[in-house]
Amino acid sequence: MDFIKLQSILKEIGEPAFRYRQIKDAFTKQFVLDFKNISTISKSLAEDLAEKISPLSFKAEKILESKDGLSFKALLRLSDGAVIETVLLSPLPGRWSACLSSQVGCSLACRFCATGQGGFRRNLTSEEITDQVLFWKNFFKEKKLAGKFSSLVFMGMGEPFLNWPEVKSALKILIDKEFFNLGSRSISVSTSGIPDGIKNMAREFPQINLAVSLIFPNDRQRSQYMPVNRRFNLNQLKKALTYYFSKTNRKVFFEYVMFKGLNDQAAQADELIEFIKSIEGGAKLIHVNLIRYNAASGGFSPSDAKTTEWFKDYLKWFKDYLNKNKVGATIRKSLGEEIKGACGQLAGNQ
Length: 350
Ligand code: SAH
Ligand code: SF4
Known about the structure:
Blueprint: H1 3-12, H2 17-28, H3 43-52, E1 58-65, E2 71-78, E3 83-92, E4 95-99, E5 103-105, H4 114-117, E6 120-123, H5 126-142, E7 148-154, H6 164-175, E8 187-191, H7 195-204, E9 209-213, H8 219-225, H9 228-231, H10 234-248, E10 252-258, H11 266-278, H12 282-285, E11 286-292, H13 305-322, E12 328-332
Bound molecules: S-adenosyl-L-homocysteine and iron/sulfur cluster.
Residues 106, 108-110, 113, 115-116, 158-159, 192, 213, 344 line the site of iron/sulfur cluster.
């Protein structure tokens, strides 16, 4: 919903100022997506508005549901014909989370990532980003899904920090009391490790959660599989995180997708621990999420469950050994594999 356009249309047709507030609240607080379902406005105004402005900036072309009913993936056709994907999933019983896209495609070309392999088309506008929230909030309500819609994660298509102006204004609208009024702590932004983006988050949104897709704990492998590391290496990432911790003193999540034989051995566990320990504040504030790899492209295989468990215990053992140095780790459940609906698996070509 383009709220500025809505406001000027209402002014043009001579509606009183409070009308804008009523309609804005129906969208952002009650998640109504059809003017005719807004109980506080007349039928004729609803019809008039429906002709002049569209509540969403895209059309949902397809919605796929996983067999267990715990994840949904929507294919959204944007006004210029481009397609993005966005996901609603339940990572914990009774909890739902929407995984938002920030770009059409991604220019960073990580070799294991379906989005990255598809190339970059364009940035999303802040409206196209916040509309994904409207869309899922409405879907959640209409479908009467059980539980609470509790969080948003920027882990869909694209690198949020390479589209900072639009992502920033979307974040502002999402936490603004006058609009979505969501808690900063219920929102997470994930980056492949863009230092300036991490610093911007520390300054501008210190209460919004930050996740970093570390994936490989040494420059050699990271540069090989994540070309972004050739521009911003681990040392630059370390500096940005040191700055982040000094400003926010908040936890950061390292996303660590487990690849069989590549980054799941003792050598990488040691490197990961060393890297975390080398960052001032890191041992206390970094939490590692071990993620199952959902087969995409590039001939990678997921680590088996036993190795993943071992890797987690190894990190935890260090936590206990170092006592005050907490290198916490958890394994993240894999969801919606058959609909390729895990975050990071979005290709836009189904
Ligand atoms: N560009 C940002 C935001 C996208 S998040 C970033 O990279 O952080 C996408 C997440 O899904 C990243 O953590 C990425 O490592 C992960 N991912 C990508 N492809 C995946 C796959 N096939 N299986 C599991 N996780 C994957
Ligand atoms: Fe882009 Fe993130 Fe995928 Fe890498 S993992 S290609 S940065 S979306």
